[in-house]
Design brief:
Radius of gyration: 25 Å
Order of helices and strands: EHEEEEEHHEHEHEEEHHHHHHH
Distance between the termini: 87 Å
Number of strands: 11
Number of helices: 12
Largest sheet: 7 strands, mixed
CATH architecture of the largest domain: 3-Layer(aba) Sandwich
CATH class of the largest domain: Alpha Beta
Shape: elongated
Strand order of the largest sheet: 5-2-1-6-7-11-10
CATH topology of the largest domain: Rossmann fold
Number of domains: 2
């Protein structure tokens, strides 16, 4: 059971340091203020000013972790980004988290925020989630890592990334008994609710930013679809041809899914198809580099670029549905990437001449 401060207006402390994830601070901060909570930003030193990693938010702390105690708050919030790795070096901030957990007060951490929980040794025996890059760290700290947008156990709430912030924030509001005027908070387990609307209201990704990201992805998938079709026309190796055809099918599916998500916003594709200049450059390259290995390695590079692009898109938006779609795209492209890697490795080994036997001369 979460223990609350004896006041009609909950008081929430947000632990912050430089290079925090902008939306993971901004969204819950604004929502809590809108709900009438008292929000106190806690820094490490007097007179600091912190800038989000994306440069969208600048924050001057209200107090430092040195001058407050967990007794002063109903809840402690830890946004992600690069900030938690710095916060965990501050023993005063770590003590606040340890005491809040021991007192049964609400502790909420998102993205890299669980790094502070690791430092405070508060994950042992807990179910929790966080950014996938710290999954192994959380498991080594004794947590059962759950790859879900939101994990709640006792007085601990954790989430994975910016895409989860509207759900994460709603869970915090509900657990603190807070409400918003003219807004009915949805069930945090709802998978079909358009969470981006709450995210936008609280300072997260706007509708236009999400639509732009979808159009960006559609443009990229359209271009690489055409490139893989061209690679397939030139490939002579049967296995390579099969792998290229599989990628074409995957990219056609990606475009369908992206366009369907775009239509959920009442939008259609607004960007023009890839221009002739890009395709002409590709044709020119193929005329002078048409060996199967050259095609396979260029295709591998295209897939690796796609994996990285999908990863960045999924990490930026406060829309869980669109972020999950980019996750799926990244995962499928990564499977093809490994397939091309295996192909290139096998063909490279097959073309390596065995070493000449060593002849020993004896006197």
């Amino acid at each position: 059971m979460v223990t609350t401060h004896n006041t009609s207006r909950p008081k929430i402390g947000i632990l912050l340091e430089n290079h925090f994830e902008d939306s993971e601070f901004q969204v819950p901060y604004r929502a809590l203020q809108d709900a009438g909570a008292e929000v106190v930003v806690l820094g490490s030193r007097m007179n600091d000013e912190y800038t989000g990693k994306r440069g969208k938010v600048n924050v001057r702390p209200d107090a430092t972790a040195t001058e407050v105690r967990s007794d002063d708050f109903d809840a402690i919030l830890i946004p992600g980004g690069a900030a938690p790795d710095r916060i965990r070096t501050n023993p005063n901030a770590v003590s606040i988290v340890m005491d809040a957990m021991a007192q049964g007060k609400l502790v909420a951490a998102i993205c890299h925020g669980p790094q502070v929980l690791i430092e405070a040794d508060q994950l042992r025996g807990k179910q929790a989630t966080g950014y996938r890059a710290i999954r192994k760290d959380m498991q080594n700290a004794g947590a059962t890592y759950i790859d879900e947008p939101l994990v709640m156990q006792d007085n601990l709430i954790t989430a994975r990334r910016p895409g989860d912030t509207p759900i994460f924030t709603t869970a915090i509001l509900i657990n603190l008994g807070l409400s918003l005027e003219n807004t009915e908070l949805p069930d945090v387990a709802s998978e079909n609710y358009e969470w981006w609307q709450l995210g936008e209201t609280w300072g997260g990704s706007t509708r236009d930013e999400i639509v732009y990201a979808l159009n960006t992805a559609i443009s990229g998938e359209n271009y690489t679809l055409k490139t893989f079709e061209e690679y397939g026309k030139r490939a002579r190796d049967t296995e390579l041809g099969v792998i290229l055809a599989e990628v074409v099918t995957t990219k056609q599916r990606h475009i369908q899914l992206l366009e369907a998500r775009l239509s959920a916003f009442g939008e259609s594709v607004t960007w023009q198809a890839v221009g002739g200049d890009a395709l002409a450059a590709l044709q020119s390259w193929l005329q002078s580099n048409d060996s199967d290995m050259e095609i396979a390695r260029r295709a591998l590079g295209d897939l690796q670029t796609g994996v990285v692009d999908a990863y960045h898109l999924s990490s930026q938006l406060t829309d869980p549905i669109t972020a999950a779609l980019f996750d799926d795209i990244e995962e499928r492209l990564a499977l093809h990437e490994r397939r091309f890697g295996d192909f290139c490795r096998a063909r490279s080994q097959a073309t390596v001449e065995p070493p000449m036997p060593t002849t020993l001369a004896f006197a």
